[in-house]
Input
Amino acid sequence: MDNQTQSDSGARLEPASTGQPRLQDLREKHFRIPGVREHLRLFLRYLPPADESGKAIVLYVHGATFPSALSIAHRFDGRSWRDELCAAGFHVWGLDFQGFGGSDRYPEMSAPADNGPALGQVQEASQQVELAVRFIVDFHKVQTISLITHSWGSIAAGHFAGQCPDLVDRIVFFAPIAMRTVGMSSPSSAPSVAWRLVTLEAQWNRFTEDVPSGHSPVLAPRHFAEWGELYLDTDAESRLRVPPSVKVPSGPGQDIANAWQGDLPYDPGRIKAPVAIIRGEWDETTNAADTAWLFSALSASPVKREVKISCATHLMHLEQSRYALYRETETFLSGKDDPGVERRVSSGNARIVASEP
Output
């Protein structure tokens, strides 16, 4: 693709500079596309497989606090989830929502946090996913792509998938947020503010709190130390604050709080694509009751999987069980299902519940 490309819709699309954010791989390509709000651009990163002729394409949709560079593209000991997907033949894309990573910040993020409503909630975030998907299908000249979502990203992507079913092939809901009928608060909820600050201490506590007492760590401290410095790099002003912290839109946290108060802001029953739900056995942000509810609520999905992976939490993609997550994701996205089968499978460290009408 040329340095500047005109899309079919007439929007001018410009590959991002190689300065900020930094390239994660020499083959990686960066793009900035028009966002939902005028003058604000969204950032996409793309890494092709070695054989670029294939049409297996996936977009990663991140969660509430850190962008694509720190999740799908982040390398632990030289290897990332994205690397594994590329090795399996997938074209891998990552979206940074407005206010995160390489995407433009909301102007309101320069004002006091209490000056406005929560930024980046599901309605706008869903439109951002749609803009990204439409760019990607146009780029590859295909009709549909698959999605991998993490945590709050499942809300934005789930809303989009219900609105635009013809653009979605398959979805992996990794540690998705579900509706809870018994009210409980979110750590990032009330009172509603436009943005919030996330410290490394808060991230470490959140990443490790679900590991049972006495169990050895599943996230290596050395991995977190490296990850943490790169996380601070995503906000140019992070190290000017005491303690250092990253400013993020608070809309995702508000959406989670709403879901846990019985108001999930999308209808899973509108999703018509095959869906895999994957969670770690120790994950209390997405617990067993959450995934059971979501599995049932996905009433229009023709093929469903519910996978539980041992010794893992809500941040499994950063932990020692991450390769089990990689394999389950690749298997489902490959689409080699046997229709007309309902079965329960126990294999290795994963428990799978499958339903195929």
Notes: The first helix runs from residue 81 to 87.
